[in-house]
């Protein structure tokens, strides 16, 4: 598989920066912008020249090494430190190099006539740089700036300071992603006993490996005796001949900042239990159970009004309907606009708001798991916005729910029987009173027939009395049967209303809480993919 081009890496990095705006630290975005600008500027300049920088601490012998590579005394050397106060450029093949050196802000330039490597026409710039641990801060600033601009980094250390923690921590380790365009030189090996040179080289190689620079070549060199100079010259010549160092350096810069951006993390997978916990909390805040109970109570009340004993059922009308009291519809009502209608339920109590807040924040915590501080803050901001909207949205959701509390087919049937029984009792009662009332008005009293031939205890009872008692008892029994059926059906309606309300709560949770947070998580995933591409990997 071919390596991604610098254009592809830059494109992925720019996409990551756009997605991470407001989510990753501004310092990181500024670093992205600097790299993009630097890449554009470097690629607009000479692609023929390879710029090699010699970086080192005070006393490492960079200037002597520069002279040894050039084959003549270009750089000033002295025991007094620091010697190099401004960068010095040795230029092989100066055509096109001027603009590049202007961009590097290197004024001291020496045009080399002697070839850098025998038999090769190389376009090469070697820079002798100020000490990066110089007591003069402006010297250190120059070294730090050029460490971010040169194509090839050559770290020059000496046997006394090669293990200095400051050198490795502050300068070498931060550029660990640049191993492809990095070399290390152990200078002044002439000061070591011959049998210790390889031991120190191995120790330096181990320190570089700990810095993250795996596989970087370490060359033992002496600018005084010339030992290793040819090997170093050959290594630099290979960089210049390949003419890939500039692109490799840019790719390393991009991968370096991409590695820092990867610290923002990747969103983890949400469990179904997280959503269920959110919906349970919002259901409690929306009074789902109370509304479902009101459905059952409303059904029982209206069933009792219709099917109860007519002489007492009218009293049920005096009690308020639980659903009507909440301004809730019994079912789908024509002309009712649920989007603007509100229930008559009291505003969320402090306890209900706490339930909703706990549920939403717990979901936000789960959604933000694995993500950096910026992404987590954005997710919790969405959660805060959702908490502001939820009271009204949940109220609307309850208002538009078809609660299914309408009457049943058996109500009119039982009501008809009730009225027939009541009519029979009334007629029987009047019939039973006629023998008493008619004589008072001078009329002949009718004969009251009796029940005969049934071979039961009813034999001998007046027929009107049987009708009166039977009508009353039938009405009472029918009322009790209606109450039992109403209770059972009411419980079924309560369960159905609960399911429908929970479905509406699910829709609100999805729209108000889940979708905005999931949108943020998707943005974080796209950011992670773009960062991985910028780092040269596929996610």
Automatic annotation (TrEMBL):
GO terms for biological process: ribosomal small subunit assembly. GO terms for cellular component: cytosol. The chain crosses the membrane at residues 409-434, 465-491. Keywords: Membrane, Transmembrane, Transmembrane helix. SUPFAM superfamilies: P-loop containing nucleoside triphosphate hydrolases. InterPro entries: GTP-bd, GTPase_Era-like, P-loop_NTPase. GO terms for molecular function: GTP binding; ribosomal small subunit binding; rRNA binding. This is ABC transporter.
């Amino acid at each position: 598989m071919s390596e991604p081009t610098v254009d592809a890496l830059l494109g992925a990095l720019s996409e990551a920066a756009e997605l991470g705006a407001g989510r990753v630290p501004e310092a990181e975005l500024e670093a992205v912008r600097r790299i993009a600008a630097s890449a554009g500027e470097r690629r607009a300049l000479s692609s023929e020249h390879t710029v090699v920088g010699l970086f080192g601490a005070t006393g490492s012998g960079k200037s002597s090494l520069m002279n040894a590579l050039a084959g003549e005394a270009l750089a000033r050397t002295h025991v007094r430190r620091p010697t190099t106060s401004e960068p010095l450029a040795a230029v092989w093949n100066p055509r096109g190099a001027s603009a590049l050196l202007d961009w590097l802000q290197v004024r001291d330039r020496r045009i080399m006539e002697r070839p850098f490597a025998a038999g090769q026409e190389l376009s090469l710039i070697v820079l002798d740089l100020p000490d990066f641990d110089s007591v003069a801060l402006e010297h250190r600033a120059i070294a730090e700036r050029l460490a971010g601009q040169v194509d090839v980094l050559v770290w020059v250390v000496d046997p006394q300071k090669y293990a200095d923690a400051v050198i490795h921590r502050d300068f070498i380790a931060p550029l660990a992603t640049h191993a492809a365009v990095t070399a290390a030189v152990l200078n002044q090996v002439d000061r070591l006993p011959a049998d210790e040179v390889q031991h120190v080289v191995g120790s330096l190689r181990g320190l570089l490996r700990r810095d993250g620079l795996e596989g970087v070549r370490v060359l033992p060199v002496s600018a005084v005796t010339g030992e290793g100079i040819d090997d170093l010259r050959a290594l630099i010549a290979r960089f210049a001949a390949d003419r890939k160092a500039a692109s490799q350096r840019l790719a390393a810069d991009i991968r370096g900042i991409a590695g820092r951006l990867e610290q923002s993390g990747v969103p983890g997978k949400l469990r179904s239990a997280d959503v269920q916990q959110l919906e349970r909390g919002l259901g409690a805040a929306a009074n789902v159970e109370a509304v479902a109970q009101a459905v059952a109570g409303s059904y029982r009340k209206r069933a009792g009004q219709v099917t109860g004993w007519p002489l007492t059922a009218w009293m049920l009308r005096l009690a308020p309907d639980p659903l009507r009291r909440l301004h809730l519809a019994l079912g789908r009502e024509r002309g009712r606009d649920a989007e603007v209608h509100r229930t008559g339920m009291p505003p969320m109590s402090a306890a209900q708001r706490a339930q909703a807040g706990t549920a939403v924040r717990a979901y936000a915590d789960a959604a933000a798991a694995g993500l950096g501080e910026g992404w987590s803050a954005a997710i919790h901001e969405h959660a805060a916005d959702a908490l502001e909207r939820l009271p009204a949205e949940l109220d609307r959701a309850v208002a538009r729910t078809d609660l299914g509390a309408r009457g049943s087919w058996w109500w009119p049937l039982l009501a008809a029987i009730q009225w027939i029984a009541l009519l029979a009792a009334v007629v029987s009662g009047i019939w039973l009173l006629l023998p008493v009332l008619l004589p008072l008005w001078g009329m002949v009293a009718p004969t009251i027939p009796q029940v005969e031939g049934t071979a039961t205890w009813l034999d001998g009872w007046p027929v009107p009395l049987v009708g009166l008692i039977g009508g009353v008892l039938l009405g009472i029994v029918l009322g009790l049967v209606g109450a039992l059926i109403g209770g059972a059906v009411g419980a079924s309606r309560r369960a159905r209303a609960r399911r429908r309300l929970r479905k509406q709560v699910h829709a609100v949770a999805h729209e108000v809480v889940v979708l905005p947070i999931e949108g943020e998580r998707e943005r974080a995933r796209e950011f992670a993919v773009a960062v991985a591409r910028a780092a040269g990997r596929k996610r």
